[in-house]
From TrEMBL:
Residues 138-151 have a biased composition (Low complexity). It comes from Chryseobacterium kimseyorum. Keywords: Ribonucleoprotein, Ribosomal protein. Residues 127-173 are annotated as: Disordered. This is Large ribosomal subunit protein bL17. Residues 152-173 have a biased composition (Basic and acidic residues). The gene is rplQ. Part of the 50S ribosomal subunit. Contacts protein L32. PROSITE patterns: RIBOSOMAL_L17. Belongs to the bacterial ribosomal protein bL17 family. GO terms for cellular component: ribosome. Gene3D superfamilies: Ribosomal protein L17.
Length: 173
């Protein structure tokens, strides 16, 4: 009986399931997104999010714990060097599951699981917006705008003064 066992067994033995999740987690970390079934994506999310939380603090102990789950030096290096700095300010929810329809062969419900901070379409970074705003307000552009503005105002004021005088003269005639 399966009383109190809440995780999805995925129709596999324990060793096969742990190997499957380890390999999928390595692929997710290296490629930033993978296509799989919805059931495997949900199981992978439960498996990989605690590892991402551990990676936020780069210590030897955390590296060894993560390596015991992933069994891949390349994935651990990628996780601690590129993924961890991007997710450092996030308090959880590092992955996103997007359902993509049904697989043609067996009609399995498929999904795309991805790391949230690595998708620029859904999540344009606030830092990039700040840099673009700063580049638009560069000092050279600001000086040119300041210099051009008084000259334009002076030119505008002179014709206004002439036009008001001419209107007064026409009104007086």
């Amino acid at each position: 009986m399966r009383h109190g066992k809440k995780f999805n067994h995925l129709g596999r033995t324990a060793s096969h399931r742990s190997a499957l999740l380890s390999n999928m987690a390595c692929s997710l970390i290296e490629h930033k997104r993978i296509n799989t079934t919805v059931a495997k994506a949900k199981a992978l999310r439960v498996y990989v999010e605690p590892l991402l939380t551990k990676a936020k603090e780069d210590t030897t102990h955390n590296r060894r714990i993560v390596f015991s789950y992933l069994q891949s030096k390349e994935a651990v290096t990628e996780l601690f060097r590129t993924v961890a700095p991007k997710i450092a300010e996030r308090n959880g929810g590092y992955t996103r599951i997007i359902k993509t329809g049904f697989r043609p062969g067996d009609a399995a419900d498929t999904a795309l699981i991805e790391l949230v901070d690595f998708n620029e379409l859904y999540n344009p970074n606030a830092e990039e917006k700040k840099t673009t705003r700063r580049s638009r307000r560069s000092t050279s552009t600001a000086k040119v705008a300041v210099e051009a503005t008084p000259a334009v105002e002076e030119k505008v004021e002179e014709p206004k003064a002439e036009s008001t005088d001419s209107t007064e003269e026409k009104a007086g005639e």
